[in-house]
Specification:
Length: 134
C-alpha cells in the first residue's frame, strides 16, 4: 500500500512539474510591451536624430526640450505622449502584434510598425519614426 501511495505521489509531482514547466514557456506578455523614446525621424529623404538636433539648438543658444514617448501596454492599449516648448499632447489607442508586425490603431486610423530587438519603426507615406526601448 505504501509503495502504491508513493507511486501516485511521484506521478502527481511529475504531472505538476510538467504543468508548471509548460505554463512558464507558454504565452506571457509580448516582448513589444514597454516604453519607447523617439530617436530619429526621416522625412523628405532627410534623417533627423532628435538628440543631435537638441544639442545643435543648445549650442546656438536656443534652449529646447522635446520628449516623445510611445508606451505599448500589456492590456493592448498604447499612449503616445509628446511634449515640446511647454506644450504637450497625448494620443491613445490600441495595438496588436501579428506576423511580426505591430498595428497601432487610434481614432479609426491604423499604422503598422516593425520591431527589431529594442527598435520599433513606424513608417508611412515615405516618413519614418524610429523609437528605442527604454
Amino acid at each position: 500500500m505504501r509503495k502504491r501511495l508513493m507511486g501516485k505521489l511521484l506521478a502527481l509531482m511529475l504531472a505538476l512539474v510538467c504543468v508548471l514547466g509548460l505554463t512558464g514557456c507558454g504565452g506571457g506578455k509580448s516582448k513589444a510591451v514597454g516604453k519607447y523614446d523617439l530617436e530619429s525621424m526621416e522625412t523628405g529623404g532627410m534623417t533627423i536624430n532628435v538628440q543631435d538636433m537638441l544639442d545643435a539648438l543648445g549650442e546656438s543658444g536656443v534652449e529646447m526640450s522635446v520628449e516623445i514617448v510611445l508606451e505599448l501596454k500589456d492590456d493592448g492599449s498604447f499612449t503616445l505622449d509628446m511634449s515640446a516648448l511647454d506644450e504637450s499632447q497625448s494620443e491613445e489607442g490600441t495595438w496588436e502584434e501579428k506576423s511580426g508586425k505591430i498595428t497601432l490603431t487610434s481614432n479609426g486610423e491604423s499604422i503598422e510598425a516593425t520591431l527589431d530587438g529594442d527598435t520599433l519603426t513606424l513608417e508611412e507615406d515615405g516618413e519614418k519614426m524610429v523609437f528605442v526601448k527604454q
